[in-house]
């Protein structure tokens, strides 16, 4: 990855074509919160054409809420859904002549693993099993879990989101201070 990686969530049913020229990596929805097999292939092909790195963007299985609500899953169920989602994206990337290079959870799962060491450990174990680096917030439970599981970790920040005083992401509807 470049010194500064500008990543964007894609394959979620919005205008990917206008965003691809602006980013260096694409967090591609894996079908649980948005997207499907055809969308994943299309997004991966477009990313390849633009020279953009592809990452898996799995979530809780929650299409109704776009993956923005915590879903209580036992560790085995969380592991299974993450493995299934990344496998689906890997199949799409293979069709597009690309590979999945990292894992960045979406929405409520991303926020949960920033604070919840048990869920973070499941996600880090899956990343280790799949041989994928993780992206997430600095100083978080997922950063610690990645270290504990020997998974490369890349800390990130959101330019378009507000943060709380403890460093956690503010709710998406909260405006970014100007």
Describe the secondary-structure layout.
Blueprint: E1 7-10, H1 16-19, E2 25-29, H2 37-50, E3 53-57, H3 75-95, E4 100-103, H4 107-115, H5 117-130, E5 134-137, H6 141-148, E6 153-156
Parallel strand pairs: 1-2, 2-3, 3-4, 5-6
> What does the largest sheet look like?
4 strands, parallel
Name the structural class: alpha/beta
Order of helices and strands: EHEHEHEHHEHE
Count up the domains.
Answer: 1
Named at the architecture level, the CATH assignment is Alpha-Beta Barrel
Report the strand count: 6
Instruction: Give the C-alpha Rg.
Output: 15 Å
**3D shape:** globular
**What is the average of the pLDDT values?**
93
Report what the structure shows.
It comes from Naasia aerilata. With 178 residues, the chain is α/β, with parallel strands linked by helices. The protein has a single domain, classed as TIM Barrel (Alpha-Beta Barrel), CATH 3.20.20. Strands 1-2-3-4 form a four-stranded parallel β-sheet, with helices on one face. It has a two-stranded parallel sheet with strand order 5-6. α3 links the parallel β3 and β4. α5 packs across α6. The protein is globular. The protein starts with 6 loop residues before the first strand and ends in a 22-residue tail after the last strand. The model has no long low-confidence stretch (mean pLDDT 93).
